[in-house]
Amino acid sequence: MGSILKAVILIGGPQKGTRFRPLSLELPKPLFPLAGFPMIYHHIEACSKVENLKEILLIGFYQPSESLTHFISSTQQEFKIQIRYLQEYTAMGTAGGIHHFRDQIMSGNPEAFFILNGDVCGDFPLADMYDFHRERSAGIRTTIMGTEATMQESVKYGCLVENPETHEVLHYVEKPGTFVSSKINTGIYLCSPDIIHDLNDVWRRQQEENFNGGFGDILARPSESISLEHNVFSEMASAGKLLVYYTTRFWSQIKSPGSTLYANRHYLQLYHETHPDRLAKNGDGLPSIIDDVFIHPTATVHSTAMVSALFVALLVEACSSFKFREILDVCSRTLDFYSCSVNVFLSLY
Length: 349
Prior knowledge:
By secondary structure, this protein is an alpha/beta fold. Helix content is 28%, strand content 28%. It has helices at residues 39-48, 66-79, 93-100, 102-106, 126-135, 151-154, 195-212, 228-238, 257-274; strands at residues 5-12, 33-34, 37-38, 53-60, 82-87, 112-117, 120-122, 142-148, 158-162, 169-174, 183-191, 242-246, 251-253, 288-290, 300-301, 306-308, 313-314, 317-318, 323-328, 330-331, 334-335, 340-345. The strands form 7 sheets. Strands 5-4-1-6-11-8-12 form a 7-stranded mixed beta sheet, with helices on both faces. A 4-stranded parallel beta sheet has the order 14-16-19-22, with helices on one face. It has a 3-stranded parallel beta sheet with strand order 15-18-21, with no helix packed on it. It starts with a strand and ends with a strand. Residues 215-222 and 311-349 have low confidence and may be disordered.
């Protein structure tokens, strides 16, 4: 048995994801279904395919809830992997939670650990990324999974400049004001244990700056929020401790309701390779299926209905002659005869 690996999924909290409203009002954003399964289910499934990955830690500041507890329990049983939720007392940023829960992350002495932002989606080649990192790990703290973006889109993400021969990141800047590079950060990282020392240094320096900055409110606690992207990666790049592993596979960020349509479409396309059994099929006595479609097992769809593109349904009864296209998440709804829905979001309740 080789060295163990772990994964951390950053799920944020209720103060984040306001651009995702109204879809996140009733259900935490990380549990919003994409292609029939909660957003972070796809992260966990990708992690489960990495050999010797023994534990997944969800870090965020959501209050524990029945929906989150049920998701963790059912997913843990399905993938036969330990999953725990570590609750931050406040928003700590993408590195603050890693620093705060460093003892839990490092228990068992993992060889390395993945960090996955919960608001991205894609076909994550984590095993290949691990092989890449392992072959070049001497002195390296972190490998970033990168991809290509257009010149116009790149400034919305973390941009990096690399040495094409060694894949070392020479320069990193988060959301630059002007074009830097078309190579961008996907929000997926693989870290060596020594990154904890870097986070300790950043945290101490930040606390010193807070205390030396003036008296202020003596009751206010120094901020423990640390960002990998803003506070850590640029220093790592300068010190030669940062690598980039590129992927050309599907990747997207989930920031708005409209972005879920794009993610659904690509996840459903991916099911042809990974889970063809999840895709609805045409047949006698079945609704007409056009393109890639997932229909939840609890849904009842009339045989005369036409279902196109991204239909995902929970506890929904669709009557005859209903036409669906680009619909996300219907819950406890009855859709009437001769209705037609195109590019819409139907409420959860």
